[in-house]
Amino acid sequence: MDLSEKTDPVAGAAGETPASRSILDPYALRKDFPILSRTSNGKPLVYLDNAATSQKPEVVLSALDSYYRTYNSNVHRALHILSQEATGAYEAARTILSRFIGAPDPATCIFTKNATEGLNLVANAWGRANLAAGDEILITEMEHHSNIVPWQMVAEVTGAKVRYVPITDEGRLDMEALDKLLTPRTRVVGVIHVSNVLGTINPVAEIARKAHEAGAIVVLDGAQSVPHLPVNVVELDVDFLAFSSHKMYGPTGVGVLWGRRELLEEMQPFLGGGEMIEFVAKEGTTYNKIPYKFEAGTPSIAEVIGMGAAAQYLQGVGLSSIHEYESSLIRYALERLESLEGIQIFGPRDERAALVSFSLDGIHPHDVSTMLDQDFVAVRAGHHCTQILHAVLKRPATTRASFAFYNTREEVDVLVESLRKAVEFFSGR
Ligand SMILES: Cc1ncc(COP(=O)(O)O)c(C=O)c1O
């Protein structure tokens, strides 16, 4: 079957309306992604590992190519034409990215290596200066390791304590528990916007309101939300937001940390070196203004420009349309998956993001993933960097299928049939 060809894109989903059918055409959009026409042993690629990293459209590939072919140069350092062009494109990407997340001021968008580095930057540069023994860092049981480990590390050096908001049986944050855990001792609340395992979309604006009432700042991990739904830092009223380019159809090696200007300005740099200085003398150094204070050394220039191209591409497709389309795709996927014998699906059934983690009775997730790979279906098996959450789920590992707007119902069908074969194989039928 050629998965790029439209067969019946709307068949079968519950709650589908004619209006929602025209929101986005995945079959047309797939053509923007060269890799999606790959085959292996005659089977078309079914790429369902988008939460790990997503595929790149032609506009991103050509942004990288054209930088290296026509204006490769370092930024901010020379007066020649190439450097001016590179600097212009690099700073234009900052403006695009700031608009993309509703930030009024581009200088508050810092380019990092990825979401992980952004969260480490906050934990170190803000945490070390603002946390002390007796303070509490409130995170959740569904955090990715990148929003746990940096806080544990900073807690160790400052004497602050890390507390965890539990999740309900349905896989949502226990908001009553959050109310009890938020106290005047809480200095920071770290929360994942969309769980990379449960698909839960957390009520960030409500959490931010409660956190601010308690006097805490809010650090949002947007790695799984920014590529899939409209995210606006002003509307959410958070204090920091970190996300990665490679999960939003951009290149690897770059991400954004957005922060409130007043917090960024009072923070000390995280890394020292070129670019982040104002003046260096034997007696000491004064620092550059934001964002450069936090961008030591030569940045990932091509990748930043590519990330800007990815954000523009996503704006062209429309984040609301993407969210609506992916919501209908995950409803369909859940319906189909539930027909499998011995499956346990984790996370809420509705109002969730387009990824699903599950286990199949008696089959190790690695075996599931290996079986699917024989049909060229790419999923992920493991703890997905959420060992605390997996301990709560009482599973060392799960299998995860994570979708993008270029995935189709036919691909869900291929996934389900491939899983059915795996169930039959392992049950000896
Ligand atoms: C929710 C979440 N946060 C953070 C990260 C870390 O992203 P990166 O590895 O790009 O820094 C991931 C990656 O899987 C994630 O899913």
Protein model, in words:
By secondary structure, this protein is of the alpha/beta class. It folds into 2 domains: about 20-30 and about 320-425, Aspartate Aminotransferase, domain 1 (Alpha-Beta Complex); about 60-315, 3-Layer(aba) Sandwich (Aspartate Aminotransferase, domain 2), CATH 3.40.640. It contains 15 helices and 17 strands. A 7-stranded mixed sheet has the order 4-10-9-8-7-5-6, with helices on both faces. The longest helix is centred in the first third of the chain and has 20 residues, at about 80-100. The model is unreliable at about 5-20 (pLDDT under 50). Bound molecules: pyridoxal-5'-phosphate. Pyridoxal-5'-phosphate (PLP) binds near residues 51, 196 and 223.
Model regions low in confidence, pLDDT < 50 over at least 5 residues: 4-21
Rounded mean pLDDT is 94
Strand content: 15-25%
**Main sheet record:** 7 strands, mixed
Overall morphology = globular
In angstroms, what is the radius of gyration?
22 Å
Structural class of the secondary structure composition? alpha/beta
| Structural domain count | 2
Which hetero compounds are present in the coordinates? pyridoxal-5'-phosphate
Q: Helix tally?
A: 15
User: What distance lies between the first and last C-alpha atoms, to the nearest angstrom?
Assistant: 26 Å
CATH architecture descriptor name of the largest domain: 3-Layer(aba) Sandwich
Number of strands: 17
Strand order across the largest sheet: 4-10-9-8-7-5-6
Helix content: 25-40%
**CATH-assigned fold name of the largest domain:** Aspartate Aminotransferase, domain 2
